Amino acid sequence: MSVILRILFVLAGSITAFFVARDSLNFDIVQTFVAILLVTALLLGGSVWSLLRKT
Q1: Core-most of 2, 13, 32, 44, by most CB within 10 Å?
Q2: 3-class DSSP string for 2-50
Q3: Which 3 state secondary structure label does DSSP give 1?
Q4: What is the pLDDT of residues 5-42, one digit of tens each?
Q5: Cα–Cα distance measured from residue 55 to residue 53, given in angstroms and rounded to the nearest whole number
């Protein structure tokens, strides 16, 4: 589980770096928000894939 979260935080850090400077005070907050969005998108994608696979 921690490996998945680390990969998501690495992805979130690289995505966040496009929009917020790394030395900004709110970089960690934005990175966490992006990580939450990635987890939500991953879960939504898995749910949709599961529904489509059943039909």
Answers
A1: 13
A2: HHHHHHHHHHHHHHHHHHCCCCCCCHHHHHHHHHHHHHHHHHHHHHHHH
A3: coil
A4: 899 999 999 999 999 999 999 999 999 999 999 999 99
A5: 6
